[in-house]
Specification:
With 388 residues, this protein is of the alpha/beta class. The chain has 11 helices and 15 strands. The protein is globular. The N and C termini lie far apart (47 Å).
């Protein structure tokens, strides 16, 4: 039996909200698109006419105080986060907020205090935790790390004579991010809007994933950047684990954006663009599994699915862009990055039917790691988390 869906208000109805949160809330059986709030009447018209918002508003405080509104999806810029969360805390209303939490650490800690003091259900939009491919890959990897099974074909050259090494079996996680800065919006280059650039507004996605996969406490960060476009960071964990993030914005959308590789205890788990996972040396795990795409204008191309199918579909899409002159034709066969699942899982959390999705403390830790990377890159040294 389906439970009564929750009335959500979306505060901040820009491109991300219109592309993900607004339609996802409208489509879900667990949520109702009750109110859309934004200063732009054009954005509100789209929410009403295209997505069926029951109400619209230009006043976020009035929206939150509406007794029919049961939960908030906060998708404003970071300049308007803390006041909205403070009022939600006073009203006892759950909040799903986009990442990063805030522009500066003092605001991050202020938000954390509000959430702890009020006790409201709270979720930060590190949506990749909710991607079906990422969930399965992480489950496989954590089971392997916590209870490794003998791999019958692993080459044990020295046998009992093999030396004992303290880091034997310790995990390592790598993230490779390919982006194209020509696609970025103007606010990215505005220091009043994004004072720390991609090291904050993009990196928290990946520092959160590193923490989630490693299952250990980060203790130190080393980072180098070349400015806005190229970044490389290494995260050290309390158990000796290492995670690396390489983010390059001089790439292309004609190639998969994200590749994740988790290694440990003689096994490897790979997530390729969230449409395919591959494993080796992990007993009982599928060696390859593919995941459906969210949108596919080329169902007859790349029918094998997975990363090879995606590449064929993308090649067809690039040819269409050349012919049409419309760059939006490039976007087809998008991987499921977990946006809709995150909101559905948060709805479950609110009513007590599911665990915490991405709580305030995990999000604060991911943000601290990002700020440690910012400090490390600026000062060209290793930065310990206790400094942040």
């Amino acid at each position: 039996m389906l439970r009564k869906p929750l009335n959500f208000a979306v505060v901040g109805c820009g491109a991300l909200a219109q592309g993900q949160h607004v339609p996802n809330i409208a489509r879900s059986e667990k949520t109702v698109l009750h109110t859309c709030c934004d200063l732009s009447e054009d954005a509100l018209a789209i929410c009403r006419e295209k997505h069926g918002a029951l109400h619209t508003s230009t006043d976020w405080a009035t929206t939150l105080r509406d007794p029919e509104v049961e939960a908030i999806c906060l998708a404003t810029t970071e300049r308007l986060r803390l006041p909205v969360i403070e009022l939600a805390g006073e009203l006892g209303k759950p909040v799903y907020v986009e990442k990063p939490l805030a522009r500066e650490l003092d605001e991050v800690y202020a938000i954390q205090k509000v959430v702890h003091d009020s006790g409201i259900p709270f979720c930060v939009g590190h949506n990749r935790r909710n991607s079906p491919a990422m969930i399965e890959a992480r489950d496989i990897f954590r089971r392997h790390m916590e209870n490794p099974q003998p791999c019958p074909w692993r080459w044990n050259r020295e046998g009992d004579a093999r030396p004992k090494l303290p880091e034997d079996g310790v995990a390592q996680f790598t993230c490779r991010i390919n982006d194209d800065w020509w696609s970025w919006k103007a606010w990215v280059f505005d220091k009043t809007q994004a004072s720390h650039g991609p090291m904050l507004f993009e990196m928290t996605h990946f520092t959160d994933l590193c923490n989630w996969f490693m299952g250990s406490e980060p203790i130190a960060v080393t980072a180098i950047d070349s400015g806005m476009l190229n970044h490389a960071i290494i995260i050290e964990y309390a158990g000796g684990e290492l995670a690396t993030v390489t983010l390059c914005a001089n790439g292309t959308f004609g190639y998969p954006k994200e590749l994740y590789e988790a290694m440990g205890n003689g096994g490897v788990v790979v997530v390729d663009h969230m449409c395919e996972i591959r494993t080796s040396g992990v007993e009982g795990a599928p060696w390859r599994k593919t995941y459906p795409f969210l949108t596919d204008r080329h169902p007859d191309v790349g029918t094998q699915g997975g990363i090879d199918g995606w590449l064929e579909k993308k090649h067809a899409a690039t040819a269409e862009v050349v012919a049409s002159g419309n760059p939006m034709d490039l976007f087809t066969a998008e991987p499921d990055k977990g946006h809709a699942h995150a909101l559905d899982h948060f709805a479950d959390q609110i009513v007590g039917d599911g665990p915490v999705v991405c709580g305030i403390d995990d999000a604060v830790m991911a943000t601290r790691v990002a700020f440690a990377a910012i400090k490390s890159a600026e000062e060209r040294r290793i930065v310990r988390l206790e400094e942040i």
